[in-house]
Design goal:
6 copies of one chain form a homohexamer.
Chain A (H helix, E strand, L loop, with lengths): L1 E3 L14 H12 L4 H14 L4 H28 L10 H5 L1 H9 L2 H5 L26 H24 L4 H32 L19 E3 L8 H4 L11 E3 L26
Parallel strand pairs in A: 2-3
Keywords (chains A, B, C, D, E, F): Calcium, Manganese, Metal-binding
Family (chains A, B, C, D, E, F): Belongs to the manganese catalase family.
GO molecular function, one term (chains A, B, C, D, E, F): metal ion binding
Chain lengths: 272, 272, 272, 272, 272, 272
């Protein structure tokens, strides 16, 4: 069960309106790696956790914080959209290249659909979709996704920081840079613990006999040239075994031949 | 530029048809974490790499191998669909619960749309979409996604392995278990190298002054109770700083108040 | 800013596992009219509200409750998936039609992808998408969507209630039936207030001179026969004007003729 | 069965080309609340109606009119795209901010994909999807969606009207403003009739004993502060019962604890 | 402008309910190649046609017929859903494998969402999307898509015909088989006319000097082995030139090297 | 199994950066008719082919070439994005309309998400989806799709060619124009062979008795006026039968009446 406070976790007020930045900030709100993604992903991972209470709680703590981050960015976007140019007939558009750029570059749905409000969409107007997230039941696999999400997310925040000199936007983005650092670090901490218990390869519970054994630590060089060789050659893998390198990989099976289709499918029959 | 050999990288022939397993195997072909995802993701990351030739080549080596994995699973599915029950009027459906389960559970598009062929879709028939993948230009961020993809993918392969006793399916899945292990290990190797150069937090190039400084290593306890505390409390984070823990987080900003909308948007005006 | 309590708002424990009902309950979790939709819709409407504090707060109160409803249903689904049949080779499938039905009818992603956890998807496995929701800046327009969402949602809950005799599921659904009733009634209350101020037709701010005036209260009978006539004929519309009825509507404009395409588009040139 | 007349229902000719407005008008053609949505929604509701011939006919009358509205807007868009700037090298782009805005802001698919034709997409190029519509079998629930669609749609038309001074566009939009008014009013009329028969809460057929009884007319204040209280406090709900208000809602159930996952799923086992 | 007749173009009544066939028939209603696709595709192609009145009219004639086909299939599906088993607790499910198959295999949204009505979705419940269709402004290109759509569609109808022995379903499908034949033939007729005018290669207006000339009629053998050779070897192409065959294709350009990324993107810098 | 060469099949280097063209070229990379579509479509058709080795090989030859085309266009886009304007505060934006157009018109995800890399998306940022492709098991039906894809694709390449004067872009597009010509011609060749064997109407295996016989070669004139008549009137169809023309088509079935819904669905009961 959740409760809401009317105050924001952190400041989210720009110095001045900027409809282009409003469009761009949609990426970290409703894009693949935006706050809606981490919020929903951590919620589902937390709710689905089966008996690892400290991770379950950590996931729900962080998910709950992320709802507040969506709130902050939505609030920022709504304010950046104040005074957005709504008509190409406005005088300024016809004489000022910078305003023309805003006119051309702003998201038309910010005017037509949301009435200068934030949308649950990315910077190109794609709807947020749960295709972006995962909750698998294997916490180590999911923690790797979580640290990925915080890495990709923080990268986007850093890029947006460089795209503006507005002190209000930068203050909020600086807060997100800091929080995404913490979130990366806490998921890395959890990964360290889990790898210590379950091993480095996910899932750690697969018996070795399941695997085709002689292809487990081998890099096949499927491109001409050997640029990739130094990444693994002569090194010990993180699970303690040595990497091998195969310069010219061979096919291990024959050419497949499929059976003829049954007549009632009206497919092309095989040539004789 | 690419070339094709008609032989498969590894065996992909089931002992006997099984339309239910055909449906399930679609998950690792065209699902979020299936082979189409890693194939396309590594291709784009490789093509977009700007001057890190060993990683670029490693990505394209592995991408090229993955095209061959899509080929293997597609071939397996086509064979599992041989003899699929096409009509509920077939005698067997009316008397045999196991065949009734197949009739009910098989993917109808395997008969109607693909004519007993594999589809670029997941086990529920959702189309594959590039929403599943990322290529960001930050190789460390992307390598984290890659190790995630191989972890989630291998987890699904392991689950499918347990769902069948067909030796042919298990042989192919055992090959994939082994290759996904290698791919996890090679991406982990790359991550180790990159973290050594760029630091543990992505992106490593953000100046500290960008960040709101006092919130970088703090876990806010947004859920009642303190189950999550032991994950970080009293520990040093992977970047060498100490974690802090705030039991009752406070809002750092005021309640936001938005400006009234302009009249030409025909939104609800604020109450006075 | 939000906070989380570990307790659920209401009971969410089934009497016994039932993987078919787990699949069906996904509809009210991650479907078009599920709890994820109302949760996200009310959040965005609340955050985007410009100066109508009582509605803004009501939206955020209700949104916050809905996060807890997603939590309840997710928890219910995870428990319904305990003991789900994972392999068609299990003995029971081969002899028991009811288990065969479960085998055929359960969502394969509940086993392969989520590891017996709830997914942010509907009963056919379609991902939740923000295409389902709206926040327009016109509160009356949005309140009409909200009462729609609670009507469609409650309808689905009622249908699910009839599909099971499990007392635990019914208890949770009975709670949702009651809450959806309240939510319908509170949005209807808001609609009454807003219509009193702004008029019955949305948006109420459009000057009459914008409209092509003689077609505002007319039902055109575009189907043969006059079955629809009694709905409006001889009645006063809710805005106080009389409905008109046109039995055989005429075209008011000519056949359109488009200009030839420019050559550099390589379109088919018009025939001479 | 349907037939087509070559004439348009109403005028759809702009004074002059305007590729930016062409992009914007896509929203009311192929967006969430565009004419494709109401056309398809009313068609499906009409076809699925089980024995309420006057509503069935009204739905099909209106659906049939809407096909003609899609036709009008598509025709308008094609004409607005005449003379669209196709190349950034055109002289005008380099000197005229207004043309630069068009160049930057127009939909590139209008040139590359459709050859200056309308697309079944919204103003950001998102494909139309049947996720936008509903046909539930409960006519009152659906009529509420219909009045929503006409409200959101008319709101967007009004906003577009303000964005241009082109008399031809405004004439067509003025026609749509008038028709959307009629459609709102006729669905409201149907709602009045249906509520009189079935009650205000949808679905009206749910026995009271299904509901958890003491939570049916209660507003839970899940946000701090009591701004929302006046919407319901001391009022009678539309179904004749009194609203209640709970300032500090309590959890009614315990913290959920999920069972450990079965080993063959290779999920993280619970900590001991 | 359109008008509607209440009678169906052709019979659409099954002998008896069959919820599995209802699910399968959704494919030809709302699937990639279903009637919604051809209806919407021909409408847009017709509306966008610039000055080829006979094709424009042919497209709109056929589009208008297709609206009636959607109507027929929707009506058929609604009737096939009568008496669908709604609860796994029903006695029949527990004893009868055929009913168990229906229970497992039916679309749960047919009960929960549409109330035994047709949905604008395919046989796996995927929403119809305008991604399925095209209107390009080049009528020959589009006519090729149209003949494809009628070919894929008729193929699916033929497969469905084989899956049932219900005389009512077969009668309707037999009608569609006949109409899809006509539609294939009429589009082929148009293609013949257009190819005679514009040449066999689309678009016919591209000057030869645009093309890299020595690769226009060459099959590159990118797979080992020469199975594909006989398709073109020693033959004259449809445009009157001779095919060539290259057994071992060579790369014509160098390995690409991309520039380093700018610092403000925080991407991985190139290794030195 | 596949292998990769580091060299490109053909040159893909622009004369100078152009972020607007980068956005536009995404259409032929990741759009409906882009290279990702033909690559994936030919791969799946090849893998699913059941015993027509020459076509299977031709499909895989061409698919393998197309992977290299995706590579070329991705490489081109990455280079066009060099020096893209990242901030509206840059001086040039404020004074130069052409740069303002680029600022407004470029894809923001090219900066924020991909770090100046190509994306698996179209020119409006829509993700690539397997909804774009088909593999049906009927090779003639699929070859018709393939010639469509090469026609639509070549049309888009031709349009893009006209939109730029950059010699490097034009060189690459000229190569694609030539290859798309070849691919059209080779699929046309295959179609000729298959039609000779299987007949002109797909699928050719449907017994005539399945069809409702008197509607197979008839054009119904569902639009007023007879513009479409000359396309078929008095002509022999490609299958050797004569076309018929019906000026005023009649309904062949009655108005449908659906049964009342069962009570447990809580739908609207029929009026008496």
């Amino acid at each position: 069960m959740f409760t809401h406070k009317k105050e924001l976790q952190y400041h989210a007020t720009p110095e001045r309106p900027d409809a282009l930045m409003a469009r761009r900030l949609q990426e970290i709100l409703g894009g693949q790696w935006g706050e809606m993604s981490v919020m929903n992903m951590y919620l589902f991972q937390g709710w689905n956790a089966r008996g690892n209470e400290k991770y379950k709680d950590l996931l729900l703590d962080t998910a709950t914080e992320e709802i507040g981050h969506v709130e902050m960015i939505a609030t920022m976007i709504a304010q950046l959209l104040d005074k957005a140019p709504l008509s190409a007939q406005e005088e300024a558009v016809e004489s000022d290249p910078a305003i023309a750029a805003v006119m051309g570059g702003m998201n038309p749905q910010h005017a037509i659909v949301t009435g200068l409000g934030a949308a649950p969409r990315d910077s190109n107007g794609n709807p947020w979709t749960s295709n972006y997230i995962v909750s698998s039941g294997n916490i180590l696999a999911d923690m790797r996704m979580n640290v990925t999400a915080e890495s990709q997310g923080r990268l986007q925040v850093a890029r947006l920081y460089e795209m503006t000199e507005d002190k209000g936007i930068r203050d909020m983005l600086g807060f997100l840079l800091a929080r995404d650092k913490q979130h990366q670090l806490q998921w890395i901490e959890a990964i360290k613990e889990l790898e210590a218990k379950e091993g480095i390869v996910v899932p750690g519970t697969v018996p070795e006999k399941y695997e085709v054994s002689d292809v487990t630590h081998t890099l096949y060089n499927f491109s001409e040239g050997e640029d990739s060789k130094p990444v693994v050659d002569g090194k010990e893998a993180a699970d303690g075994n040595d990497f091998k390198y195969i310069k010219n990989p061979e096919a291990m099976a024959d050419k497949p031949v499929l059976k003829a289709p049954p007549a009632q499918l009206h497919s092309t029959p095989p040539e004789k």
